[in-house]
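Please review this one:
***
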Amino acid sequence: MNKLVAVWKQKAKQLKVEVHALYFAYRDPRTPWYAKLFIVCIVGYALSPIDLIPDFIPVLGYVDDMIIIPLGTVVALRMIPSEVLTESRQKASEIAGQRKPVSWVAAFIVIGIWISIALLVTVFFFRLLKK
């Protein structure tokens, strides 16, 4: 059991380094525009202090942490030129272990999505009640 926990911790550390590498790749002018667009979504969501699916919701709350972010990271890494990725990973490894940056812009986007969903659901139910 302890060995499994150690493996998961190592994978989580590696994912953090990869997300930081994506951030550095985003800032590199050699990264294609479509990769930058995708990277903004993944890194912004990964660094957002608010999840789209809150962690207190059983099972679904961890879907973003366990599936969406790792899968998005893998896809984004494949879009980046190899020399840019190598340099970005090196920079990310150098800052590994430091305080995690936070994306408040992404947090506000997630809040906006939740508010939009709440408004849509409210409008839907009011229309149902009127009938």
Q: What stands out?
A: DSSP finds five helices and no strands in the chain. The chain has one domain: 2-130.
